[in-house]
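Lab notes, practical 5.
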Amino acid sequence: MQLKYIWFPLGAVLIWAGNTVISKMAAGVIAPEDISFYRWVLAALLMSPFLARQTWRDRARIRPYLGKIVVLGLLGMVLFQSLAYFAAATSSATSMGMIVSLMPLLTLLLSIRLLSEPPTVGTVAGGLVSLVGIAILIGRGHPLDLFDHGVVVGDLLMLLAAVFYGLYGVLLRRWALPLPTWQLLYMQVLTAVVLLFPGFVIGHHSPITADNLPILLYAGIAASIISQFLWMRGVAHLGANRSSIFVNLMPVFTVIIAMVALGEELHGYHAVGGLITLAGVIMAQLLKQRLGLRAKAG
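Output from the prediction step:
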């Protein structure tokens, strides 16, 4: 691995961790439906001068894939981030970051079903270990009392958001649409703008103020465009597998940023549940031995 290229995926993951904290900061200063819409409108406006003309020229080539592009935009741009903004109303940034760390594992688990990939020792064992960690995290240290005392709604919304993004990753790989990466991203951004517009119209509008403008700029520029560029460059130089390892650092970055920016405290259940969850994710990535292999005929 060439060390000079690790800054690409590392930078992307750091921006994503910061965006989790930004999502928490957005709660109370801008409505979830508004920041979801404004974010992608800003991204679309910034990308259009570079991509709109060529995308229009390629419309005949893009048209057969519009249905799949809409599904990808719905899962990755609309449902994932919108649920995160709603989750932030009741969940802490620390918990959100740790739950999001499940995405690599969820992608592997969904691949078993949708890509017909055989399960491995890592996906099964890691999945069970991570399940224990998430139960401790969501149960605030009392996983056996989940149904007696209830759970934080925001944690469940964030878990659902992670599932949607895991599905997004699997479908992106399964369909492998033959479009340039930036053009595919641009089309998904436009899809998000269209799909989020009705909610923006019927929702209660939050004015853009000095308090929420920096949040909107971070979400629309850093998290929507710069992080994607860094991630794509990282994958190009290091490969998808090596780059995905850096996602394991996201909960660590999120906790540090949340403690500094929001003054959140790291509780014992955060540390225990987060470490167990992360251990399960790493097991799923490292233990590649397949299950159910038939014994060779002797």
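Observations recorded by the TA: The first helix runs from residue 7 to 26. The radius of gyration is 20 Å.
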